[in-house]
């Protein structure tokens, strides 16, 4: 879910924004409202919002000063929507260098806000997908080196796309239709081995996938499943060995005797 923070010193405007759109339908959670830029900076550090809707003129610290400070401090910069009056237009144009996504005049037009949010949401999703694709390319190389018994240290830029993952070790390729049922995954091929890395944001999500779809998958394919591991750990050798051992155990216990394919 995307996180959004509003920065507005007029409570009735921030309340109006909260009621203006069905935020849950956009998969957006409003994590808070700040009355000025100084309070907003503390909340931004705490919640790390993906989207910030901010006024320009506020007491203590105005919106432009807040954006300037954010630009200095943050490595991952949120999407910014500025709302303000006609008299502040020239002032707001100075914020363009901070990557402002849109400038909306008061009173806020719900349709304009809706279009802006939809565009930003699509942009965030594209950027996340691009980062995930880059992570997967780096991970494939890292995993291959580690499970090939080669010395490979984890590079600082190797980042797992989600917090939790597991391995599926299969002796045959799994169909694309079946793969759709097990959620987010990518394939690493090593000779005749097919290693599918399945990943999710929570261990509960992976547990549910194991209980439902992966258990059914094992009835149709000679494959084994590892334990759930944390992406920060990246102990891929253990996941690889666990998946192989699970394959051996599963088919040793099953009525189907496919042990000849394993040993």
Number of helices, counting only DSSP H or I runs of 4 residues or more: 9
Tally of discrete structural domains: 2
Low-confidence sequence ranges: 257-263
CATH class identity of the largest domain: Alpha Beta
| Overall number of strands | 10
Write the CATH fold name of the largest domain.
Rossmann fold
- Estimate the helix proportion, in percent: 40-55%
Structural class by sheet pairing and helices: alpha/beta
Largest sheet at a glance? Answer: 5 strands, parallel
Average pLDDT works out at 85
Share in β-strands: 15-25%
Report the end-to-end length measured between terminal Cα atoms.
Answer: 45 Å
What is the string of SSEs from the N terminus onward?
EHEHEHEHEHEHEEHEEHH
| Basic shape | elongated
The radius of gyration computed from the alpha-carbon positions, rounded to a whole number of angstroms, is: 24 Å
Q: Which strands sit side by side, in order, in the main sheet?
A: 2-1-3-4-5
Give an account of the 3D structure.
This protein has 263 residues and is α/β, with parallel strands linked by helices. The protein folds into 2 domains: 2-127, 3-Layer(aba) Sandwich (Rossmann fold), CATH 3.40.50.2300; 160-262, Alpha-Beta Plaits (2-Layer Sandwich). 46% of the residues lie in helices and 21% in strands. The strands form 2 sheets. It has a 5-stranded parallel sheet, sandwiched between helices. Strand 4 (79-84), helix 4 and strand 5 form a beta-alpha-beta unit. Helix 2 (37-47) packs parallel to helix 3 (63-73). The radius of gyration is 24 Å and the shape is elongated.
């Amino acid at each position: 879910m995307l996180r959004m923070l509003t920065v507005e010193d007029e409570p009735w405007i921030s309340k109006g924004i909260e009621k203006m759109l069905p935020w849950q339908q956009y998969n957006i959670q409003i994590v808070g409202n700040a009355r000025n830029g100084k309070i907003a900076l503390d909340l931004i550090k705490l919640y790390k919002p993906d989207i910030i809707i901010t006024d320009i003129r506020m007491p203590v610290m105005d919106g432009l000063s807040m954006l300037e400070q954010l630009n200095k401090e943050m490595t991952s910069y949120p999407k910014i929507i500025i709302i303000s009056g006609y008299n502040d237009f020239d002032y707001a144009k100075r914020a363009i260098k901070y990557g402002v996504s849109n400038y909306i005049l008061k009173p806020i037009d719900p349709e304009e806000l809706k279009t802006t949010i939809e565009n930003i949401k699509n942009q965030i999703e594209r950027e996340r997908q691009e980062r995930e694709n880059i992570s997967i390319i780096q991970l494939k190389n890292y995993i291959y080196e580690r499970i090939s018994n080669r010395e490979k240290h984890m590079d600082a830029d190797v980042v797992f796309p989600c917090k939790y993952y597991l391995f599926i070790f299969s002796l045959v390729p799994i169909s694309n239709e079946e793969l759709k049922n097990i959620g987010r995954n990518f394939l690493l091929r090593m000779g005749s081995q097919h290693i599918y890395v399945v990943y999710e944001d929570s261990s509960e999500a992976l547990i549910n996938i194991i209980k439902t779809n992966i258990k059914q998958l094992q009835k149709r394919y000679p494959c084994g499943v590892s334990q759930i591991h944390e992406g920060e750990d990246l102990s891929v050798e253990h996941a690889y060995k666990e998946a192989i051992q699970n394959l051996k155990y599963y088919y040793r216990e099953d009525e189907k005797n496919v042990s000849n394919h394993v040993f």
